[in-house]
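Journal club prep — side note

Before the paper discussion, L.F. wants everyone to see what a predicted structure for a comparable chain looks like in token form. Sequence:
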Amino acid sequence: MVTLDYGLLQSQLFINYVFTDILLLKKALTAPGAEGDKEGSQDEQDKYEGNRKLASIGKPLYELIVREKILVEGALRKAAKDLIEPTDAQLEDKARLSGLYGCIKLNPRQKGVVQPKTLRLVFPAVIGAVWQDCGTSIGLVEKVVERL
């Protein structure tokens, strides 16, 4: 069995970015409801949100970078749609290839099954985590987006 630390290392190698604050990567890989309490203290409620806040930062960054790339390279409309809205199967393949799949901390109600909805949060959350970790360097984020 792959350990979490090894998986985190593998994921960082895949995206070609090493986190200064590894807790940001762990947060990006934490599904909503995996920690905390929806009705507890503010701290518990924040934990319950999991990676949603990081995903809300990363999603517009991802879309901006991909749309700019599409405009510059003149990608076909179908290819552009696939980049911006990948299928569930494409997301799962990317998650497995990157090593992220085995590192996701799931909500207990998921019973060990990584749902497509969870994967749709993980990728933008990782981008949001990189954005925060690198001090908001769009160049570094762009390199990570290209790897993902």
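L.F.'s comment for the group: Helices lie at 4-15, 22-28, 42-48, 52-73, 77-84, 88-98, 116-133, 138-147. Keep this in mind when we get to the figures.
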